[in-house]
Amino acid sequence: MAFDIDMIKRVYDALPGKIAAARQTVGRPLTLAEKILFAHLHSDQPLQNFERAKTYVDFTPDRVAMQDATAQMALLQFMQAGRPTVAVPSTVHCDHLIQAKVGAKEDLDTALDKNKEVYDFLASVSNKYGIGFWKPGAGIIHQVVLENYAFPGGMMIGTDSHTPNAGGLGMIAIGVGGADACDVMAGLAWELKWPKLIGIKLTGKLSGWTAPKDVILRVAGITTVKGGTGAIVEYFGEGADSLSATGKATICNMGAEIGATCSLFAYDEKMADYLRATERADIAELANGIKDHLRPDDDVYANPEKYYDQVIEINLDELEPHVNGPFTPDLAWPISKFAQAVKEHEWPEKLEVALIGSCTNSSYEDITRSASIARQATEKHLQTMAEFTITPGSEQVRYTIERDGLLETFDEIGGVVLANACGPCIGQWARHMDDPTRKNSIITSFNRNFAKRNDGNSSTHAFVASPEIVTAFAIAGDLTFNPLTDKLKNTKGEEVMLDEPTGYELPPRGFAVDDAGYQAPAANGKDIEVIVSPDSDRLQLLEVFPAWEGTDLKGLLLLIKAKGKCTTDHISMAGPWLNYRGHLDNISNNLLIGAVNYFNEKTDSVKNQLTGEYGHVPATQRAYKAAGIGSVVVGDENYGEGSSREHAAMEPRHLGVRAILVKSFARIHETNLKKQGMLGLTFDNKDDYDKVQEDDRIDILGLTEFAPGKQLTVVLHHKDGSTDSFPVNHTYNEQQIEWFKAGAALNIIRQKFNK
Predict the structure, then answer these.
(1) Catalytic residue status for 581
(2) pTM for the structure as a whole
(3) 432 annotated active-site
(4) Residue from 4, 62, 95, 404 carrying the catalytic annotation
(5) pLDDT digit string (tens) for 240-283?
């Protein structure tokens, strides 16, 4: 039986009535996203026809999911809220802190020893507050959620940007910062700007080498990394219904790479099959009873342009396998054009490492199709020419594929099975490399390929493709190889071609697992003690951020003017810094060390205006904080793109940065800044970015009259005595302005519970 079945029954019992009321209020048919959103309005939120991309709306999510890196800070914040237990079903998944180095067993044993303090903290705090705990080795959060918790028509928030993976089972699942998770676990409403809607109509059916991954790779090429910002992407059509549930999840997972709030598919028989296969037939039966409410209304299918802000159509019959990259997930190349692109751009043709798995592509279907290619290498006497790694998404998947002989198939071609964890996908990879500065190419079935993302090396050209294509490239060892058309020479000197991949959507003999890795919380955690050593360098109890002083901000210094792409990886790197995700002061030593300084084209090198010397970004900001002087960070387009990590907002707040002024924000990061009491501002005229000089003193005026929709004014005092003044915009509503005034959203939560 499913987890939290009583909660799911309550959701389904209320769904038809709530959807009917919403349809009457709006006066038209509804998309699936609208149905789920309206069905999860907070009880204090009046029902109305909300304006897309403008109206802030309060919701009541059904559950919260957290991974171990972000859960530390989320739960440290929750401990300050004053509640005895979480208000909604919540889980913690230990998947981020396991470094890939040797192989599954050795790497897991090392992680258990190295991270014992953090795991013990997460286990004990989960036990105390009624949170389900998935132990290290149990699997990657999104795969485990898909197998155990996701359900059609539900709403979930998760402290990881790839939470939308659960959209593969028809769930609105949205990546958030830990402060948002804290709110929901504390029983408060969760706020979201009513999203725009992008409809993607899929016709035809996948065949041959083309996989579900190629759908989202193509979509990323169409929309770019910003195209989905502020929108829910809804897939529909007969092509959508033809995809497996895990294939749908792959597409939804990587929707984060186009900035989408989330992505989802309508409930269908493929989802029902997956629910039954994962021992949740009871949910499938309930969903079948209200199936029409878990799909868009008929007229939405018939006239999609009337209901979506943008409609994209993709014919799966004509879709080619794609390879995206390097350095950005939206640089999309059909396989027929990829070899030419590699040569024209002089990207390293030799492939050094091929990696499959991760939260994006580690389903049974993915593994069986990849194994069918690997098996051919053995049968056709081909040698694997690149390093090859396999990352199972969960212990259930790993156990099942081992039982079915698939791990042995990979082993025969030299594949190395890594732990059931994020590993190289998030930079947790101790890569074996002779010269990290050497230009080189890798290819993965992961989701992101920003510079330094996988191995910390800016010289690594990372490409993204389906597991099948990645496996074929591993065998070829050459990025100019096209497995659809090209031959390979085997050890006998013969020229052979790889056949099209084959596989199973679900295991013919069913899933199996010995120990899934789940630990249920105590029935009553009142007397359970959560211990955080004051001497720890990995965990630190939080101090309260100070309230706004009630005045305009004057005399601020420029910390850095970031040039070009500045993702959350640039603001707060992962990799070894994951060790400090529970210690705000220590992890703040990575603040903006990956951002490029506009004035000298260097990373981690900014001018200290107090000394005139150049130094590290965190050290410079600490000097400003010690002197009692606030600062400003200036950024480019889509600032904060990428991961949901709230550390990218908490670190500048902790070190005394007062405002982030950019051309545009990524959605999650902007919300995270607001939650932490920071000012997130955008240039009204983007050309004003060019006016910011290295030695500026900066004033932010209008805060004493801070109001929704009302511009603030920035004044730049240049070193030569001249000034520039210009308006800046913000998206703060009345509640968010109260967060700013109080110093953080958490400060208001604590005040409410301590009354």
Answers:
(1) no
(2) 0.87
(3) no
(4) 95
(5) 999 999 999 999 999 999 999 999 999 999 999 999 999 999 99
